[in-house]
């Protein structure tokens, strides 16, 4: 960041630009074909510019439902996984208890297990216990996998904390709850956020596990998969573009905030007196 | 300062064995007076930090009891004990500003807002950090962080301040400057300091009294002068400063002094406490700066031991002579390079070492 700008040509610069272009190309194609004025069923050839798909974004009710399913499942599973995974990660980092090793191994297994195996075994479990497949089973499956990710990131963050921080808080008169709320929680928040972000992305992206556990419910990826046989409508590109735009905006916001706290934190602590209120 | 005899911290038969089976502290009896700068000095693993944690309330003793200002505090959690700790790692809250770090304890005790601002401001002035209120700990130098940690503890006006090697992470120059300002602050606020260190120089410089700890036990408690001039045990003698250890057989005992024969012609008089049997082997110690070098056998009741100079080390302000005595003991003699800069002896010279009988001290034999 602080290096003087180098205007000179360098192979590294060229390589970086090519790499970024290569990574962005599929996304560019997705965005461009959202403006494609297609008339047939296939959206593969450029036929002219239109905003039709943006104005008729919700013209396909089943696509809208699938997209809403995906978004709500991602949001709900992220929320639940964060609530379950955070204490789990903290406990694994802080305390030595019977079953700690087993718990760590199980978390690792959930993360390492191929989605196909996970999906297939979940399906046989739901069938065995006669659980009807649908929205709740997708939500349960995603929550389970995401919990492992949140617990792992929180644990990694919590073990890196100096244990005397909590002792210092205790020494200064803080009981258990204020110690957690004022010291531990703010310090593990980056771990919680990283885990939550992973959970959300994995859920919204998931096809394999959902395919096994969805029953007749459709999520966004499942709907697209089903549509490929007859032709994927440009609304899919538009939805993809919008999700991408929101994600980029959020990432940019986080980046700006992050760099501001690092560069001149002195300038943004005016109301810190209230931050730690009673 | 209140009456100097009121005990601020008392340990009675305190022992601590961890669940893992390691025993850190093996029965300590200690009294720290009100307003005193008291150091726990010892090598790493001697139990000094555990002792501090027992006083702070982070650990509970497995035997004995801790009393703060006469009140037994066994079972009282750390957040309800009227003492504060300065941690070795400082343990500053990284997400809070300097101001909020220092104000943390006052907010927990629901001190009114205006008073918090005033007290934090005054405390930051005492530790010379005014103007850095809004900084985060990671934007401060090591010495500044150290002073924030100190201010954060002191602002609560605890009845005793516990410091766990607070200067350990600083470089030598800063450490020496901080020693002076710590002592100044302690005098200004008139507070009881319990100070843990492995640095004997630090303990000697700042303390009113020192407890020398080894392997979970107290070896000696005394003023810096007592501990340095009259080490009670072999460990205390070797851990605090440099000591020359000499041994010999007791030839006679009279008027609180024993005469010890060292080698063929060495004769050492040493003060002893209690009865010492003739013929017993006695170990004694002499500090390097108490010994004089000479060509002839000393007279006038001085102790005298013959030896050969094995090394002469020029140090600028002083010269160290390494001498091996006729009985084979290695002795270091420290001689100021005063008016005459000439070396009094060279390598290979036969010399007589001499010192006043009161400058050597008998060591308690191993427990």
From TrEMBL, chain A:
InterPro entries: Bact_Polyamine_Transport, MetI-like, MetI-like_sf
Superkingdom assignment: Bacteria
Entry membrane topology: Multi-pass membrane protein
Gene Ontology CC entries for this record: plasma membrane
Keyword Membrane: yes
Broad class of the protein's primary localization: membrane
Sorted UniProt keywords: Cell membrane, Membrane, Transmembrane, Transmembrane helix, Transport
TM region positions: 12-35, 71-93, 105-127, 180-201, 208-226, 238-256
Signal sequence coordinates: none
Keyword field contains Transcription: no
Limits of the ABC transmembrane type-1 domain: 67-254
Gene3D superfamilies, alphabetized: MetI-like
Family: Belongs to the binding-protein-dependent transport system permease family. CysTW subfamily.
Stated name of the protein: ABC transporter permease subunit
TrEMBL record, chain B:
Residues annotated as signal peptide: none
One annotated Gene Ontology cellular component of this protein: ATP-binding cassette (ABC) transporter complex
Record EC number: 7.6.2.11
Catalytic class of the enzyme: translocase
PANTHER family: SPERMIDINE/PUTRESCINE IMPORT ATP-BINDING PROTEIN POTA, SPERMIDINE_PUTRESCINE IMPORT ATP-BINDING PROTEIN POTA
Family to which the UniProt record says this protein belongs: Belongs to the ABC transporter superfamily. Spermidine/putrescine importer (TC 3.A.1.11.1) family.
Protein name in UniProt: Spermidine/putrescine import ATP-binding protein PotA
């Amino acid at each position: 960041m602080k290096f003087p700008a180098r205007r000179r040509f360098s192979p590294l610069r060229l390589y970086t630009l090519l790499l970024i272009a290569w990574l962005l190309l599929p996304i560019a194609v997705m965005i461009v074909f959202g403006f494609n004025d297609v008339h047939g069923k296939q959206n593969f050839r450029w036929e002219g510019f239109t905003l039709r798909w943006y104005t008729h974004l919700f013209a396909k009710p089943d696509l809208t439902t699938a997209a809403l399913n995906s978004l709500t499942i991602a949001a709900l599973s992220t929320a639940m996984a964060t609530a379950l995974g955070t204490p789990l990660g903290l406990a694994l980092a802080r305390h030595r208890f019977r079953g700690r090793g087993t718990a760590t191994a199980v978390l690792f297994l959930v993360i390492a297990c191929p989605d196909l195996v996970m999906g297939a075994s979940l399906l046989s479990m739901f069938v065995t216990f006669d659980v009807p497949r649908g929205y709740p089973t997708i939500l349960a499956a995603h929550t389970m996998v995401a919990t492992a990710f949140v617990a792992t990131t929180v644990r990694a963050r919590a073990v890196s904390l100096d244990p005397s921080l909590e002792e210092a808080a205790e020494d200064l008169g803080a009981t258990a709850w204020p110690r957690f709320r004022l010291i531990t929680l703010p310090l593990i928040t980056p771990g919680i956020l990283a885990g939550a972000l992973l959970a959300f992305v994995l859920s919204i992206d998931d096809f394999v596990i959902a395919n096994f556990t969805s029953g007749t419910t459709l999520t966004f990826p499942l709907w697209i998969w089903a549509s490929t046989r007859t032709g994927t409508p440009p609304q899919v590109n538009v939805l993809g573009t919008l999700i991408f735009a929101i994600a980029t905006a959020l990432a940019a916001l986080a980046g700006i905030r992050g760099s501001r706290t690092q560069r001149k934190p002195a300038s943004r602590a005016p109301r810190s007196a209230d931050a730690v209120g009673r | 300062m209140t009456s100097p005899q009121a005990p601020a911290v008392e340990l009675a038969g305190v022992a601590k064995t961890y669940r893992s089976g390691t025993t850190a502290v093996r029965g300590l009896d200690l009294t720290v007076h009100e307003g005193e700068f008291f150091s726990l000095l010892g090598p790493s693993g001697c139990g000094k930090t555990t002792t501090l944690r027992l006083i702070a309330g982070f650990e509970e003793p497995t035997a004995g009891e801790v009393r703060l200002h006469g009140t037994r505090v066994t079972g009282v959690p750390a957040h309800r004990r009227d003492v504060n700790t300065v941690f070795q790692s400082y343990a500053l809250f990284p997400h809070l500003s300097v101001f909020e770090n220092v104000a943390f304890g006052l907010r927990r005790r629901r001190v009114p807002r205006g008073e918090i601002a005033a007290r934090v401001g005054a405390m930051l002035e005492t530790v010379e950090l005014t103007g850095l209120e809004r900084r985060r700990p990671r934007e401060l130098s090591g010495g500044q962080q150290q002073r924030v940690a100190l201010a954060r503890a002191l602002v609560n006006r605890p009845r005793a301040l516990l410091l766990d090697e607070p200067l350990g992470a600083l470089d030598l120059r800063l450490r020496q400057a901080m020693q002076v300002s710590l002592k100044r602050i302690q005098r200004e606020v008139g507070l009881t300091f319990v100070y843990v260190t492995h640095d004997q120089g630090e303990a000697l410089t700042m303390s009113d009294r020192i407890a020398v700890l080894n392997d979970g036990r107290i070896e000696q408690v005394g003023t810096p002068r007592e501990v340095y001039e009259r080490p009670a045990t072999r460990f205390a003698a070797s851990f605090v400063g440099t000591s020359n250890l000499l041994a010999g057989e007791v030839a006679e005992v009279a008027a609180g002094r024993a005469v010890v024969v060292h080698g063929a012609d060495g004769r050492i008089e040493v003060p002893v406490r209690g009865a010492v049997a003739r013929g017993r082997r006695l170990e004694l110690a002499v500090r390097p700066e108490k010994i004089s070098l000479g060509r002839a056998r000393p007279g006038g009741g001085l102790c005298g031991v013959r030896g050969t100079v094995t090394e002469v080390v020029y140090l600028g302000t002083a010269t160290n002579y390494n001498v091996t005595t006729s009985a084979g003991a290695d002795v270091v003699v420290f001689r100021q390079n005063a008016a005459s800069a000439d070396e009094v002896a060279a390598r290979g010279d036969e010399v007589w070492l001499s010192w006043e009988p009161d400058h050597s001290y008998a060591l308690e034999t191993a427990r």
